[in-house]
């Protein structure tokens, strides 16, 4: 079985030592990063703040372009030339669903946009698809007439998910999708995501620093620190026998938290 | 696709209906809107409504007081001016000229300003800041002064003053649009639209413009009141519309000569300007809060 998504030596350098009048010097380095993802598999990327997790997500969906290396989808490299294919197949769920939904237009128009830009469906077909997707993520078809401010946080997250799913993508990139949610809503959304993933066979890249959810959701883990991958492996392996010191710290702090909750 | 109905009566208001529902709550704004609509009806229907031709002079009926005065008559409801022209017809046509032209000018200035502002907002670096800072320095000068300078160069006349006012009104639209686009461009929903494969034009028209209603209404109302004042002021100074034509500012300057004998000849055009300004500001204020509240509750 070929890999759904494979990333080869992806690297990004931003050596900006030149000091502008008002600019602080920025110096940012990522990679080289390589990993693969099979269909139906969940890959979690964990790491501390400013470890380059979110930036890696931006590289994957094409918001930033890497200096070297390439991203292969089903064996074909993704470049600027086939941006449309990337739009269709690699979708992103943003960190803050509140910010990522346009406040000025209805949810129906928000969901209509990707369909209008990337498919050749007629308006009636698009409407059917929008209603189907809303039902799929556990909302009602009537929600298409709603505005962002009328929804709760959990519902907004569902809309963000619907927006990612509506094009039937093969890979879903989620950047901290549950950070802003309370535990009960969070587990609802996690289970919804896993259910949809099972149904559709999505490859799922999941960026988080909540190790509890990571352990629950993911098959493989990548641990990042300062823009470098320091450890990869199966979830259970990493949680049971962490090799690197940084990973050990992460896992131990997580387990300490669980033990304290249990006692 | 079958769906079950949770509610017996389903009502999903469109964005426009939402705005109207919120607008209706503000009673003073509704009064302003009625006043505004009254002026719109007058300027559209004034050839039918006006009892006389505004330019016809009648030597036999000079300086007749308005109908509510003891010496007034029902033939000239608002009285006549020093040349025997019916003041009611002149005020109606004057509203048409001042108000109608102002709306036109603001629309033109808004279209030009929003287009240029969006371009400036979407572009980066030197080009964007040159556009912005050049126009910022223009914005420091009052529009009436700019208009007078332009008229001093191209000569007096109504058409020239229209051009001058459009040019004077455009910078503020550019400035506000640019600032707004720049600020919204950093938000995640624009990034999401970019990921959907939207071109810069689509991002501006589909994602950012729907959120610009409030700012456009505020700027549009402001510009409309400025335009009315400027047109009348230029008319009053004999730089804009020239005397025979019925324009409220020109009528005021003509009425000044007979102000002591016939105070109504300046009071009535002045009152028309005053009512216009009040209705515009009330409607603008109500519309702004309606647009804001639409996205809050």
CATH topology of chain B: MetI-like fold
Biggest sheet layout of chain B = none
Shape of chain B: flat
Proportion in β-strands of chain A: 15-25%
Structural class of the secondary elements of chain B?
Answer: mainly alpha
**CA-CA gap between termini of chain A:** 45 Å
The CATH architecture designation of chain B is Orthogonal Bundle
Runs of chain B in which pLDDT lies below 50 for 5 or more consecutive residues are none
Highest-level CATH class of chain A: Alpha Beta
Shape of chain A: globular
- Count of distinct strands of chain B: 0
N-to-C series of helices and strands of chain A: EEEHEEHEHHHHEHEHEEHH
SSE ordering of chain B: HHHHHHHHHHH
Separation of the first and last Cα atoms of chain B:
31 Å
Q: What is the CATH topology of chain A? A: Rossmann fold
CATH homologous group name of chain B: MetI-like
Number of domain units of chain A: 1
Query: What strand order characterises the main sheet of chain A?
Result: 6-7-8-3-9-10
CATH class of chain B: Mainly Alpha
Number of helices of chain A: 10
Features:
heterodimer, A: 263 residues, Rossmann fold, six-stranded mixed β-sheet, four-stranded antiparallel β-sheet, 10 helices, B: 297 residues, mainly alpha, MetI-like fold, flat
Sum this structure up briefly:
The complex is a heterodimer of chains A (263) and B (297). With 263 residues, chain A is α/β, with parallel strands linked by helices. Chain A has helices spanning 53-61, 83-89, 97-100, 107-118, 123-136, 153-165, 183-200, 211-217, 235-240, 245-262, and strands at residues 5-16, 26-37, 42-47, 68-73, 76-77, 90-93, 171-175, 203-207, 220-225, 228-234.
């Amino acid at each position: 079985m070929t890999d759904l998504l494979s990333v080869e030596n992806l690297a990004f350098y931003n050596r900006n030592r030149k000091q502008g009048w008002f600019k602080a010097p920025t110096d940012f380095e990522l990679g080289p990063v390589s990993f693969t993802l099979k269909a139906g598999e969940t890959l979690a990327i964990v790491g501390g703040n400013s470890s380059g997790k979110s930036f890696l997500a931006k590289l994957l969906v094409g918001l930033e372009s890497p200096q070297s290396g390439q991203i292969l989808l089903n064996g074909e490299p993704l470049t600027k030339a086939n941006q449309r294919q990337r739009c269709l197949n690699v979708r992103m769920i943003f960190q803050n669903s509140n910010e990522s939904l346009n406040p000025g237009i209805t949810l129906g128009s928000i969901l209509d946009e990707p369909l209008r830009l990337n498919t050749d469906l007629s308006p009636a077909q698009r409407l059917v698809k929008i209603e189907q997707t809303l039902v799929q993520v556990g909302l009602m078809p009537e929600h298409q007439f709603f505005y962002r401010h009328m929804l709760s946080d959990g519902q907004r997250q569902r809309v963000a998910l619907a927006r990612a799913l509506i094009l039937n993508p093969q890979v879903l990139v989620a950047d901290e999708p549950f950070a802003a949610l309370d535990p009960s809503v969070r587990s609802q959304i996690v289970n919804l995501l896993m259910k949809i993933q099972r149904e559709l066979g999505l490859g799922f890249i999941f960026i988080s620093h909540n190790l509890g959810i990571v352990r629950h959701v993911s098959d493989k883990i990548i641990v990042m620190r300062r823009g470098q991958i320091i450890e990869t492996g199966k979830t259970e392996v990493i949680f049971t026998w962490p090799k690197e010191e940084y990973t050990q710290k992460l896992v131990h702090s997580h387990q300490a938290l669980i033990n304290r909750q249990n006692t | 696709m079958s769906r079950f109905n949770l509610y017996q009566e389903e009502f999903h208001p469109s964005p426009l209906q939402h705005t109207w529902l919120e607008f209706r709550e503000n009673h003073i704004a509704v009064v302003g809107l009625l006043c505004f609509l009254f002026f719109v009806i007058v300027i559209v229907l004034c050839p039918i409504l006006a009892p006389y031709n505004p330019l016809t002079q009648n030597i036999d009926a000079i300086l007749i007081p308005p109908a509510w005065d003891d010496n007034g008559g029902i033939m000239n409801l608002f009285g006549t001016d020093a040349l025997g022209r019916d003041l009611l017809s002149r005020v109606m046509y004057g509203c048409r000229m001042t108000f109608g032209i102002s709306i036109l000018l603001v629309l033109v200035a808004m279209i030009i300003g929003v287009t240029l502002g969006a371009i400036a907002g979407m572009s980066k670096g030197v080009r964007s800041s040159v556009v912005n800072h050049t126009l910022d320095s223009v914005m420091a000068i009052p529009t009436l002064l700019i208009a007078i300078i332009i008229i001093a160069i191209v000569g007096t006349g109504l058409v020239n003053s229209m051009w001058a006012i459009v040019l004077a009104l455009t910078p503020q639209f550019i400035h506000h649009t640019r600032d707004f686009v720049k600020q919204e461009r950093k938000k995640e929903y624009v990034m999401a639209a970019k990921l959907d494969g939207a071109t810069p034009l689509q991002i501006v028209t589909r994602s950012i413009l729907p959120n610009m209603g409030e700012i456009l209404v505020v700027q549009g109302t402001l510009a409309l009141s400025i335009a009315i004042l400027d047109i009348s002021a230029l008319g009053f100074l004999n730089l804009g519309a020239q005397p025979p034509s019925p324009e409220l500012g020109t009528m005021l300057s003509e009425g000044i000569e007979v102000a002591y004998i016939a105070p109504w000849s300046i009071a009535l055009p002045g009152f028309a300007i005053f009512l216009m300004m009040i209705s515009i500001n009330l409607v603008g204020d109500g519309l702004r809060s309606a647009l804001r509240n639409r996205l809050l509750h």
